[in-house]
Amino acid sequence: MANQQVGTTLQNFSPQQLRERCGQRQSDNSHEQFCFELFHRAIVEKSEQCWSAIYQQYHQLIYGWLKSYVDNQPSLRHIVIDEIVQTVFMNFWRAYTAEKLAKANGMASVMRYLKTCAGTAILQEIRKSKREKNQVGSVLPIDESEFVSIPSSHSTERTVHQRLDEKQIWEIVDGICHDERDQVIARLSLVSNLKPKFILEKHPDLFKDVKEIYTRRQNLKERLERDTALYGMWEAGQL
Questions:
Q1: Global pTM?
Q2: What is the DSSP string of 158-195?
Q3: In sequence order, which ranges of the chain are alpha helices (DSSP H)?
Q4: Which of 86, 117, 139, 219 would be a feasible disulfide site paired with 229, CB 3.0-4.6 Å?
Q5: Model pLDDT for residues 51-73, shown as the tens digit of each residue
């Protein structure tokens, strides 16, 4: 769908009409063309009306995702979910570019990225909560009941991450990578933490020298840092 030209009939729909048709789910998924057109206009054409329609359409869905993350996590009970919904949309708007949309395999890819933004927002809240607890831990009295059934920060982050689809994360990474060499560096250097000289020994057919690997690694890290949703996970050590 991402590579198909939008039909003239679709172009004649207003943002609100697109939203209404998007919300009318069909067994053959024909409604998704209206959803995708909303995202196309919002991201490529910078339509404020379409952004508003997207918010109306997906607010409750994102709320449900977030609620499912925090319901069984006592350490996150302070979270105001509606505020985190705003963060999810903000991260998505900043990170999901026209280039990503052009590579998307229809609405499935768009929704996977949106759900990744939701997971990242929760991880950010976990880290924030941990920092605040460390700052006040030596001053406030300890209420032992607070620690009943509360997992450690590490296990909480792991639980959240396990609920995220690893395939969707690497789909985003692969979209950021320019070619096979970037993909190798992402997996062997940034994730497995192998030294460039070992990567060169393992893939002499892909790289001419260690300097090339260092340069590509830095460029890839900079692109990841600009991808708000993904870098939040990378920074938390979840990839």
A1: 0.57
A2: HHHHHTS-HHHHHHHHHHH--SHHHHHHIIIIIIT---
A3: 8-11, 15-22, 32-43, 48-70, 81-95, 98-103, 106-136, 153-162, 166-176, 180-185, 196-202, 210-226, 228-235
A4: 117
A5: 999 999 999 999 998 888 887 67
